[in-house]
């Protein structure tokens, strides 16, 4: 079975989600997978081995000077052009307080021939929840460019297990902020990211109420999802839920195996693994 992974990260030394040796070490202690750097070809071959096409979240660059952000983007677009069978595109993250330079860089990225690009919004990461008016120009550009926006929800692994959690406020990722953005911009396609722990019932309510919201469930093994969410995935949400692995923090063999172990029908599994994402991002129903 092929996999359309809606959310993972770069694992190369240049663009790895964890920027220090200490953070790499924390991966093993918290998520029980080994933190390491992959060469570019090694990372691509690893994904080919599991028949994966992926959208990568380049999260850490948002606090850098704009010239450095462009450099990282250009690096990822070059590798993407050379591996189009693996890299479908990228979620780009910005600080909304740097509005003009961020919007200009997104417009430049739309023309970079590096695959799909969409805004990835981490209210926790920048201390500005997705309902804040500072994000409105970003939503309006997403509508103009016909690109979906990914909005992070629930517990984040950034800062997890540290005193003060790097200063991040978890409530900035509450699903209420997705609901407010979706209500204000009904033309905006929103992909709620992560299962929104501990607010999974609130996420289900937003999905049921707002037809312009779908979700991808990266960052958590499927066995850890709340019972109500597991049940809805096989019922009302089966056309709205997509897989995100969160590689290299989590790894494909276990994530794929765990999804297959939950007792869903082959039809529902195919929707989660690739059909829903291909329809969402590519406008096609997979054969």
What does this structure look like?
There is one protein chain. By secondary structure, the chain is an alpha/beta fold. The chain has one domain: TIM Barrel (Alpha-Beta Barrel). The chain contains 11 helices and 8 strands. Strand 3, helix 4 and strand 4 form a beta-alpha-beta unit.
Brief summary of the model shown:
It is built from 11 helices and 8 strands.
Strand and helix map with partners:
Blueprint lengths: L2 E6 L12 H11 L8 H10 L2 E7 L7 H17 L4 E6 L6 H12 L5 E6 L1 H4 L9 H10 L3 E4 L22 H10 L5 E4 L6 H10 L3 E4 L10 H7 L7 E2 L9 H9 L5 H17 L5
Parallel strand pairs: 1-2, 2-3, 3-4, 4-5, 5-6, 6-7, 7-8
Q: What is the CATH-assigned architecture?
A: Alpha-Beta Barrel
The tally of strands reads: 8
Total number of helical segments? 11
The sequence of SSEs as H and E is EHHEHEHEHHEHEHEHEHH
Task: Calculate the mean pLDDT score and round it.
Answer: 94
Q: What is the CATH C level class, in words?
A: Alpha Beta
Distance linking N and C termini: 12 Å
Q: What's the helical proportion of residues?
A: 40-55%
CATH fold topology: TIM Barrel
Number of domains: 1
Strand order of the largest sheet: 1-2-3-4-5-6-7-8
Contiguous uncertain segments of 5+ residues: none
Strand content: 5-15%
Rg calc: 17 Å
What labels would you give this structure?
single chain; alpha/beta; 11 helices; 287 residues; TIM Barrel
